[in-house]
Amino acid sequence: MCIFCKIVNNEIPSNKLLENDDFIAFHDLHPKAPIHVLVVPKNHVDCFQDVSAEMMAKMTLFVQEVTRLTGIDKTGYRLITNNGDDGGQEVHHLHFHVMGGAKLPFGHLSDEPHKNM
Ligand code: 5GP
Ligand code: ZN
Questions:
Q1: Sequence spans of domains, the chain
Q2: What region holds the HIT domain (predicted)?
Q3: pLDDT of 20
């Protein structure tokens, strides 16, 4: 069973923020922003490439609720999902990073455009 399935099943602890029948939201163990919450479907899906449109529609509403709860709905936030090896996905259970609470740097994405790496 993957690490996020264990969190869903309360087999390992997490700092939970919100939960419904389909999703949970909990604070990232190693936050990279003042607010850094992970939104995870309770049913295991490997990555964004495999998710259904139906699940994404529900997840959209859930993410919006997370931003209201954390107070970043008005100030702004970044929503990221890393997909697969080149995307840098480390946990292979679909999750969205909801990050905000400060003006976020754009990191390597603000560097010079890549020239056919
Ligand atoms: P990825 O690189 O797969 O998009 O992101 C995985 C994220 O999960 C990382 O930001 C990492 O800090 C977080 N993470 C990994 N293991 C745990 C855990 O056991 N608990 C919590 N709360 N976050 C975790
Ligand atoms: Zn899983």
A1: 3-105
A2: 3-114
A3: 98
Q: Measured in angstroms, how far is the CA atom of residue 62 from the centroid of ligand 1? A: 19
95, 48 in Cβ contact below 8 A?
no
Distance 13 CA to ligand 1 centre (A): 13
For the CA of 30, the nearest atom of ligand 1: 12
Which CATH superfamily hosts domain 3-105? HIT-like (3.30.428.10)
| Ligand 1 and 28: CB distance under 6 A | yes
CA 35 to chain centroid, in Å, comes to 12
- Amino acid (one-letter) located at 38: L
Contact status, residue 98 vs residue 35, Cβ threshold 8 Å: yes
Among the listed residues 27, 92, 93, 95, the single catalytic one is 95
pLDDT at 1: 94
